Amino acid sequence: VPHSGSSMNRKKDKGFEICINNINFQRKSVIGYVELTIFPTVMNLNRIKLNSKQCRIYRVRVNDLEAPFIYNDPTLEVCHHESKQRNLNYFSSAYTAAVSAVDPDAGNGELSIKVPSELWKQGDEMKVMKVYIEFSLDQPKGGLHFVVPDVDGSMAERAAHVFSFGNQNSTRFWFPCVDSYSELCTWKLEFTVDASMVAVSCGDLVETVYTHDMRKKTFHYMLPIPTAAPNISLAVGPFEILVDPYMHEVTHFCLPQLLPLLKQTMSYLHEIFEFYEEILTCRYPYSCFKTVFVDEAYVQVSSYASMSIFSTNLLHSGMIIDQTPVTRRCLAQALAQQFFGCFISRMSWSDEWVLKGISGYIYGLYLKKTFGVNEYRHWIKEELDKIVEYELKMGGVLLHPTFSGGKEKDNPTPHLHFSIRHPHTLSWEYYKMFQCKAHLVMRLIENRISMEFMLQVFNKLLSLASTASSQKYQSHMWSQMLVSTSGFLKSISNVSGKDIGPLIKQWVDQSGVVKFFGSFAFNRKRNVLELEIRQDYTSSGTQKYVGPIKVTVQELDGSFNHTLQIEENSLKHDIPCHSKSRRNKKKKIPLMNGEEVDMDLSAMDADSPLLWIRIDPDMSILRKVEFEQADFMWQYQLRFERDVVAQEEAISALEIFPTPASRLALTDILEQDQCFYKVRIQACFCLAKIANSMMSTWTGPPAMKSLFTRMFCCKSCPNIVKTNNFINFQSYFLQKTMPVAMALLRDVQNLCPKEVLNFILDLIKYNDNRKNKFSDNYYRAELIDALTNSLTPAISINNEVRTVDNLNTDVRLILEEITRFLNMEKLLPSYRNTITVSCLRAIRMLQKNGHIPSDPSLFKSYAQYGHFVDVRIAALEAVIDYTRGTHFVLTTNFLCLSFSMLGKLGPFSWSGIFFIFQLVCLLQRLYGNCSCHTKGLIVNKRNPPSCLSIQR
Amino acid sequence: MADSVVMGSGSLNSGSRSGSSKTSTSPTDNYQLARRRTLQVVVSSLLTECGFESAEKAAMETLTEMMQSYITEVGRCAKATCEHTARSTPTLSDVVITLVEMGFNVDTLPVYAKRSQRMVITAPPITNASVVPKALIAGQKRTHPTYIPSHFPEFPDPHTYIKTPTFREPVSDYQVVREKAASQRRDVERALTRFMAKTGETESLFKDDISAFPLIAAKPSAIPYLSALLPSELELQTLEETDSSEQDDQTDTENNSSNVSQDDQSADKENVVLPPGGVVPTGKANEENMIDNPYLRPVKKPKVRRKK
């Protein structure tokens, strides 16, 4: 018996055939067989280990000989019942051990097949072995998800469908296979389904043939490109078919009645294709591409070889503004993963960051091209802030972990409560942050070696893989289709000739981000800027940075870049200034981009030529910068710096400077229509904050009111808003946001000013969308959010019971509106029920502030299975918020409530799993960092272990 | 004969007559009853003059009828004679001729009228002239044009034949219009939702007063994504109304072959707003047949069975 160390090379599968003969929607079951062709690579191959979960295996034959087999899934019972230890650490290590025990990359598996002794000799001669396995699947809890709506009619009429899903390599949930991203083989797939259904799977549809009774048809697929089992998927349903009008080899599928939405949604997919093919100078690797939109999808987007499965909730009509960019992003993501993730797979789990990094990076390039540089830079800043916040709070995210031994001591991430050894033991949130960091690091590499070289590297990876894919298995070329960290780095150094070792060491082999504190003083005598940059590298999630950092100084004479060297013990840096303070000469000030502008310099310090200073303006370090400069400098930065990131930084800095000058700067930005709309949106909220801080000295109408009136109300009657016309998206987003921000204003009694509330109520009253070609559902939803924001705690006398009679008059008005909106939604539902969602939040807020009796029953009814998923999430959030608000916040109580609700959420199907995800996220918020083992165990009991990764 | 007269005189308002047989309070009926009564008085006095002391009711009736017939006949004939000579109002001579025609010796009439024992019958009390209830007069009645003789019936009220477009002066004040539209919509919505809430299941935010802010109960649906994703009919309708030509190329890619030129024009315009959405290459319909997509190919029949 070979020992486990060398077991990796015991077998190689070459061809894989899967045939599913029967899919029963009524019973939610599947029957089929698989046939693997195996090349033994060692002598005396007597045991074959495969991955399989929840499948019932009927028989196994090897080269037509019956073979005995053992099935053992250690993740079914992670901790033994007798075990006395009940804590998260114990559970986590037991779970990691269980997952390792069946890890396909280590040659393990749940299904162990004994090769019949007759064939042992054959093994010596390295002959091909064919393993045939018959299996069935009954009510799968993972891997395959059945959606069977409870209405009358045939399964096709009921829009019943089934599709594969899973977290990482979860294909073993629906057929026995080697469930590894590094085991490639060619595929032949056959699916026999009802004649009214379509089976969509990976590869080319060769033919569709009726069965003899003509009641079913069989879809034959061939996938000649070597593909790993986790990249295989299936979707069966009564789909409507749309052939892409621009690319006939691309086919789109959606559920019945949604075809018009599909046409609209898919009308720009070809642009994304063109973009990627152009930058990668490489054709799309598969001969066809399929998109399937399914209900109750696991995630918004999941990519498989030559097909992607999307949530049906991404579909939208041409009247919807807000969803359009979101959906386009999802499509772009899916397509990027087709190149890196599906076509090019990974050597091992620790190489995952390369794939996620590259696909995320080229997706970023698409964003830059489609939505513009401002949007791109804004996105990068957002992602950077996200990862920094996560790492500082939860500890570092390690992109490329190395595991020397199997011992607990060698755990590279001891700060985490889970193991990062396997994708399945990971926290869901951590994995999200992992992907985020991966693409940011790719961007850092791009900064170092230039985009041109970067794209050349990608092209090289793709062309090698594509040459390899057309080779026969025997040529041993297929490993070219697997990316590894070392291969990728070698490729970079070959193409660019640059050494990026330090960068990789800093960000890839090491976890944590950098935390800078900056301050400065101007030395007038020497005309030097004395900059001090300190670091915090002792807190959790931080690391020490040594190396270059760019500092941009805007002076009166222009903008100057300085590269400083951050070294071990030097905190202070002297930067010589170019200009003398000479404010009397009237001269235009040159900016970074060459523009020359007039500035009112009266706010400046007379002795200093410095307008503003920026540290690491290009975000070429994964860092958080806390920089101190005077309020007028932030104001100049906001007004005159053209980079959106700088503007956003200035806005967040101005929050602590509630002065008339800040107010003016923010108002000016709000009014500038050349300014990026997301900056203006941020300015709204900042303005509301400083208005509240300036309450006693504030003059004039409430903040933003006159501005809103000027921009969106009628000239003749300024109290009435114009009829909606959302043709200009920038002003649409501003129109949506301003009332929400205004509602945050408070007067001396800490109430929302009457004037503002009436203003919002008038906006609702006079809202008129009849002449608009776009839907106003998001706008109306935000107006309700504005009402929610205007609420303040009720003044309660002796804890009186809330009744209709003692309702505050303002609250009565608000409640009238909410009631009407919520009721109208039943008759004329809005897109994605945005209005119901906002109404539920508003009602919860009314309850929370003590205006109406606190009662979760309404939310419970909206949380039921059968409501739109956004509504259910909002309702569940409200229920959980209710539980938190009351005094008896006891773990058990809460869990009983939430999980008994889950029980009522219908058959414990996939939607249930989905809710566990949501709940767990909420739990996380509720409990902070405290570890509570019951949570994990409850999730575990109810859920297949694949989903346990998010327990916490 | 008498009937015909009655009918004749009543023919103008026969409608009211037939309908009022029971109530018999219409002015025409009253008039006829009064006349009949007067005639009866006349007949009775004549009989008294001739020396009768009493008469049977039937005889009285008969005599009255005869009297009435005679007088009616005189009137009818006189009118006929008058019209015969192209006039419209009978004169004395017409009556005389009539009487002569009927074989009455006209010369005896003055003597008979001046006889000594004749009884004088008081004129029937003039009941308040049965006022024809004034029809609603709308506008000025038109006078006859010169070529229509004045005895012709008058024009009916103008409202019966003249089209008068009635409209209120349009409210031109923008503020008022918006105000009205807004409150109207709000009222309709509120009434509708209240009605729905009253007729169906509801949920309430207040335990003490369930009817205060009734919320229509949330009902789970089997396929929730349909109503959440598809635009409502109202929205689609609004879309069509707003600008059909502009929307065409967005929502309806099917009809494009027919309005190609329009498409090309609006394509640029649309590009500004959204990347080219539904603008599909022209002649798509033809192409569709040539598209070789495996999902469009016909399903094959099972081969084995065929051979057998």
Automatic annotation (TrEMBL), chain A:
Keywords: Nucleus, Transcription, Transcription regulation. It is found in: Nucleus. The keyword Metal-binding does not apply. GO terms for biological process: RNA polymerase II preinitiation complex assembly. Residues 511-629 form the Transcription initiation factor TFIID subunit 2 Ig-like domain. Residues 631-887 form the Transcription initiation factor TFIID subunit 2 TPR repeats domain. GO terms for cellular component: transcription factor TFIID complex. Pfam families: TAF2_3rd, TPR_TAF2_C. Its main location: nucleus. The keyword Ion transport does not apply. It comes from the Eukaryota. GO terms for molecular function: chromatin binding; RNA polymerase II general transcription initiation factor activity; transcription cis-regulatory region binding. SUPFAM superfamilies: ARM repeat (SSF48371), Leukotriene A4 hydrolase N-terminal domain (SSF63737), Metalloproteases ('zincins'), catalytic domain (SSF55486). Belongs to the TAF2 family. This is Transcription initiation factor TFIID subunit 2. It comes from Cyprinus carpio.
TrEMBL record, chain B:
Residues 298-308 have a biased composition (Basic residues). One of its GO terms (biological process) is transcription initiation at RNA polymerase II promoter. Residues 1-31, 240-308 are annotated as: Disordered. The keyword Translocase does not apply. This is Transcription initiation factor TFIID subunit 8. It comes from Cyprinus carpio. Residues 8-28, 253-264, 272-283 have a biased composition (Low complexity). PANTHER family: TRANSCRIPTION INITIATION FACTOR TFIID SUBUNIT 8. One of its GO terms (molecular function) is protein heterodimerization activity. The gene is LOC109052949. GO terms for cellular component: cytoplasm; transcription factor TFIID complex. Belongs to the TAF8 family.
